[in-house]
Automatic annotation (TrEMBL):
Coiled coil: none annotated. Belongs to the ArsC family. GO terms for molecular function: arsenate reductase (glutaredoxin) activity. Keywords: Oxidoreductase. The lineage of its organism: Bacteria, Bacillati, Actinomycetota, Actinomycetes, Kitasatosporales. The keyword Lyase does not apply. It holds the Pfam family ArsC. InterPro entries: Arsenate_reductase, Arsenate_reductase-like, Thioredoxin-like_sf. This is Arsenate reductase.
Amino acid sequence: MEIWINPACSKCRSALDLLDAEGAGYTVRRYLEDVPSPDEIREVLERLGLEPWDITRTREAVAGELGLEEWPRDDGSRERWIAALSEHPRLIQRPIITAEDGTAVVARTDEAVRDALSR
């Protein structure tokens, strides 16, 4: 199990605390320092069953600078979104846990963390 975190994020710290309390084995990826490649983002999206705009933090300053709210959310624009997430990792929703069974969850709640643990 791997968890993508920003250490400054309270949701990430909460997820780590819960993983530790449950005695889970996991690897931490500080995705702002170890930026995911477009291929890694595609893989996580597949595991999540989501599209790139579904995991994009559209209220980040860089989202406004890029005009993300105006970008189409369709198959033809998918690669543009993925490139933006890789070039500007702050845009990636956090934390993301990749579960043992090959799935993943956006673990913003204790319930989502427990869901990942149960997989």
